[in-house]
Design goal:
121 residues, alpha+beta, 6 helices, 4 strands
């Protein structure tokens, strides 16, 4: 494996660890405007209080992604999950990683296989 691939894998695993280990109470609660979410690029996880990470995604504006609606929140509603038990964890991306966000997201999804991502694959 070349150095670039190793670096991407290492960064993806670092991001996954940060998302997974972020305490639920420190994640952004569901709101109409999502003002607590950054308007910047990032990798995010929709997390359930007891079930863990339900969905992994990426966006050029995490706040904008959720303000416009999100399919994972629709699925949580259809699964009758209590909205108070669903929150969003985010890791913002530095300039060097923004252009590789798709690869980072794919590595994280393959590693974790979140249930709401599996629905789309």
């Amino acid at each position: 494996m070349d150095d670039a691939v190793e670096a991407i894998n290492a960064e993806a695993l670092r991001i996954l660890k940060l998302l997974d280990e972020r305490p639920f109470d420190e994640c952004c609660p569901l709101t109409r405007e999502f003002v607590e979410l950054p308007p910047s690029p990032g990798i995010y996880a929709v997390k359930h209080k007891t079930q863990g990470i339900l969905y992994i995604g990426k966006s050029g504006s995490v706040r904008g992604r959720f303000k416009g609606g999100h399919k994972a929140l629709g699925w949580a509603f259809m699964d009758r999950l209590n909205p108070d038990n669903v929150r969003i964890a985010v890791v913002t991306l530095s300039l060097q990683w923004i252009r590789l966000s798709l690869q980072l997201e794919q590595i994280i999804i393959r590693q974790l296989l979140p249930p709401y991502n599996v629905r789309v694959t």
